Amino acid sequence: MRHILSVTVNNQPAVLARISGLFSRRNFNILSLNVGETELPEYSRMTIVVQGNTDTLEQVKKQLYKLIDVIKITELNQSNMIERDMAIIKVNCGKNQRSQVIQAVDVFRGKVVDFSLDTITVEITGDENKINAFIEIMKDFGIKEVVRTGIVALDREMNNNVLTNS
Amino acid sequence: MPIHSGARIFVESLLREKVEVVFGYPGGKVIPLYDELYDAPIKHILVRHEQGAAHAADGYARSTGKVGVCIATSGPGATNLVTGLATAYMDSVPVVAFTGQAPTSLIGTDSFQEIDIRGITLPVTKHNYLVTNVKDLAKTIKEAFYIARTGRPGPVLVDLPVDVLKSHADFMYPQSVNLPGYQPTYEGNYVQIKLAAEAINTSERPVIFAGGGVINSNASEQLTNMAIKGRIPVVTSLMGLGTFPEDHELSLKMLGMHGTIYANYAISEADLIIGIGVRFDDRVTGKLETFAPYAKIIHIDIDPAEVNKNVKVDIPIVGNAKNVLDKLIPLIKTIERKEWLEKIKEWKRRFPLNYEYDDNSIKPQYLIEKLDELCDENTVIVTEVGQNQMWAAQYFHFSKPRSFITSGGLGTMGYGLPASMGVQVGNPDKTVINISGDGSFQMNLQELATISSNRLPVKIIILNNGTLGMVRQWQELFFDERYSSTILENPDFVKLAQAYGIKSLRIDQSNDVEMALKEVLNYNGPVLLDVIIPQDENVFPMVPEGASINEMLELKKKKREKEKQGEVA
């Protein structure tokens, strides 16, 4: 089972090491982890995707809370979150295929960000499934390189997760 | 606001935290700090290895309830603390460690004696710091002590680059801390407490399972009151020894791998377990699937992460044990529980701790029984790890908290000797006895020098069987008596102690035990007693690893098996 946690932490050196170290030490299966500054520069927000049953999830949350640098943990689920993954994909693409690729990009609301004589590079954002589907289609043309951000996600209810500067 | 150097701020901050003694070892990066300590009204105990400093600070903390402090220089000095910090971490002991560090300008360049001690100690400290600006120093020290002693206690490390110690800042020690991510829960939820009371009052076969958290929260009195009021028998973990008087009829002593048979039977047949400040360690539960099969479980603990970590809990109460028990006790009814207590009494009668006395050698159990007879309440037993530790836990009667100091969670050989220094420094009026094995003793024996030069009157008793006894025992029982690398060739411990200027004697006959112990206990100074014990003496009862806790190997069974084998041969 996949669980998505939005974790507010102090924006300080070694905090990422504390969190990733906790996951490896306790043998928690981590699928992706994203960090970035929040609206308040003293805090960062991490989106952590964890694999495990509900008992594991309970331990993950409790162990995270034990870290002094963890301020707040929100568990997100499909119904209450906005989830985005982003990929940049470089596809083999000669002149003859260019229009087909661009068509596919349009359908998926992606963006062409670069092309050369025999490649085209596309940016696409969306949830994980959409990105996976798009990558599947691009495989037909021959993918040269892919980079993905992993999931970033946020609670839908605006006021639920706003930090106060204490 | 006075302007001070970082080193001076360090000393001033320690004084604000009422630190009286520190254990440490100087080195290049902490010379400025040691220069300030030179004139400071803080006692510094110079150990002979940094691991000794960490264990001494730990022993000091466990025995006094105060925060223990240790100091090491950067690089190898800092890494030598790691085992001590891990030991304190596993047993929730409040220790603050200060380490020197390369100057901030050189951090990351692999400069001389530079090591990322913050990175190394991430998994073995409750929290840690690298101070990069002298302006943050006082605030950091305040937080370090606060974090170490509050909530579930634990070790905190503060890494101090040498230029931070040398540069100057305004000094003002903060009155309070601001840590939004750290809000320990001290008061148990009252609804949960009422549920727990109801479960206790309706249970027929309850057992209290008390651990180190009872000691950390000074809740022994409450625990005792609750057990007596509710007529509830008490088992303890290794860390919980001394929380409940072991001579009381409701005491079932320790449970688990080397616990008493009656404790393990009681847990196995209980319909309710009231876990207080325990973490249901695998050495206690044995095979989890068959642990306490008929019992509902109440779990009182300050650390929410301990709830449901190992065993499924029916009624969790997160809070400080003392606060929770204060609210719980008035709700407990006095119920006779005749049938249950009779059953336990019968188990106690049928399956007491036992060993075979021998006139021509010294059985370690006999020695510890004698020691127990000769010691008064003013005694603290500090052990090493292994057979010596288990015999001490089984055969000494602990009736007061903080009277048994041992490395439980990490099982650190070499803990006892340096820890006993810390205990003695923190308790100058108490009789501090280090019960040791010959293997463990040699892991930190350099601290004999510290004991000697500070004239710390520690009594060291080596149960000398010329082997790594507990490993040897496992090899005998589970590895076809293949004694791979467990037989030791030891130095003459008596001469060794004498070389350090420590009084020393050796015995190998039962008849000599009483006189030798009296001599040791009456001697006003450090003394080492080398006790030659049989090599093949084992710790019983024993739950084999991975077995259920009611499947114990006992002395008699073991003997019968041996006889059987003899017949077949």
TrEMBL record, chain A:
<protein>
    <recommendedName>
        <fullName>Acetolactate synthase small subunit</fullName>
        <ecNumber>2.2.1.6</ecNumber>
    </recommendedName>
</protein>
<dbReference type="GO" id="GO:0009099">
    <property type="term" value="P:L-valine biosynthetic process"/>
</dbReference>
<keyword id="KW-0808">Transferase</keyword>
<comment type="function">
    <text>Catalyzes the conversion of 2 pyruvate molecules into acetolactate in the first common step of the biosynthetic pathway of the branched-amino acids such as leucine, isoleucine, and valine.</text>
</comment>
<comment type="subunit">
    <text>Dimer of large and small chains.</text>
</comment>
<keyword id="KW-0100">Branched-chain amino acid biosynthesis</keyword>
<comment type="pathway">
    <text>Amino-acid biosynthesis; L-valine biosynthesis; L-valine from pyruvate: step 1/4.</text>
</comment>
<dbReference type="InterPro" id="IPR054480">
    <property type="entry name" value="AHAS_small-like_ACT"/>
</dbReference>
<dbReference type="GO" id="GO:0009097">
    <property type="term" value="P:isoleucine biosynthetic process"/>
</dbReference>
<dbReference type="InterPro" id="IPR019455">
    <property type="entry name" value="Acetolactate_synth_ssu_C"/>
</dbReference>
<dbReference type="Pfam" id="PF22629">
    <property type="entry name" value="ACT_AHAS_ss"/>
</dbReference>
<dbReference type="GO" id="GO:0005829">
    <property type="term" value="C:cytosol"/>
</dbReference>
<comment type="similarity">
    <text>Belongs to the acetolactate synthase small subunit family.</text>
</comment>
<keyword id="KW-0028">Amino-acid biosynthesis</keyword>
<dbReference type="GO" id="GO:0003984">
    <property type="term" value="F:acetolactate synthase activity"/>
</dbReference>
<dbReference type="InterPro" id="IPR002912">
    <property type="entry name" value="ACT_dom"/>
</dbReference>
<dbReference type="InterPro" id="IPR045865">
    <property type="entry name" value="ACT-like_dom_sf"/>
</dbReference>
<dbReference type="GO" id="GO:1990610">
    <property type="term" value="F:acetolactate synthase regulator activity"/>
</dbReference>
<dbReference type="InterPro" id="IPR027271">
    <property type="entry name" value="Acetolactate_synth/TF_NikR_C"/>
</dbReference>
<dbReference type="Pfam" id="PF10369">
    <property type="entry name" value="ALS_ss_C"/>
</dbReference>
<dbReference type="InterPro" id="IPR004789">
    <property type="entry name" value="Acetalactate_synth_ssu"/>
</dbReference>
<feature type="domain" description="ACT">
    <location>
        <begin position="4"/>
        <end position="78"/>
    </location>
</feature>
TrEMBL record, chain B:
<dbReference type="Pfam" id="PF02776">
    <property type="entry name" value="TPP_enzyme_N"/>
</dbReference>
<comment type="pathway">
    <text>Amino-acid biosynthesis; L-valine biosynthesis; L-valine from pyruvate: step 1/4.</text>
</comment>
<dbReference type="GO" id="GO:0050660">
    <property type="term" value="F:flavin adenine dinucleotide binding"/>
</dbReference>
<keyword id="KW-0274">FAD</keyword>
<dbReference type="GO" id="GO:0009097">
    <property type="term" value="P:isoleucine biosynthetic process"/>
</dbReference>
<keyword id="KW-0285">Flavoprotein</keyword>
<dbReference type="InterPro" id="IPR000399">
    <property type="entry name" value="TPP-bd_CS"/>
</dbReference>
<dbReference type="InterPro" id="IPR011766">
    <property type="entry name" value="TPP_enzyme_TPP-bd"/>
</dbReference>
<dbReference type="GO" id="GO:0000287">
    <property type="term" value="F:magnesium ion binding"/>
</dbReference>
<dbReference type="GO" id="GO:0005948">
    <property type="term" value="C:acetolactate synthase complex"/>
</dbReference>
<feature type="domain" description="Thiamine pyrophosphate enzyme central">
    <location>
        <begin position="193"/>
        <end position="328"/>
    </location>
</feature>
<dbReference type="GO" id="GO:0030976">
    <property type="term" value="F:thiamine pyrophosphate binding"/>
</dbReference>
<dbReference type="InterPro" id="IPR012846">
    <property type="entry name" value="Acetolactate_synth_lsu"/>
</dbReference>
<comment type="similarity">
    <text>Belongs to the TPP enzyme family.</text>
</comment>
<keyword id="KW-0100">Branched-chain amino acid biosynthesis</keyword>
<dbReference type="InterPro" id="IPR012001">
    <property type="entry name" value="Thiamin_PyroP_enz_TPP-bd_dom"/>
</dbReference>
<dbReference type="InterPro" id="IPR029035">
    <property type="entry name" value="DHS-like_NAD/FAD-binding_dom"/>
</dbReference>
<keyword id="KW-0808">Transferase</keyword>
<dbReference type="InterPro" id="IPR045229">
    <property type="entry name" value="TPP_enz"/>
</dbReference>
<feature type="domain" description="Thiamine pyrophosphate enzyme N-terminal TPP-binding">
    <location>
        <begin position="5"/>
        <end position="117"/>
    </location>
</feature>
<dbReference type="GO" id="GO:0003984">
    <property type="term" value="F:acetolactate synthase activity"/>
</dbReference>
<dbReference type="Pfam" id="PF00205">
    <property type="entry name" value="TPP_enzyme_M"/>
</dbReference>
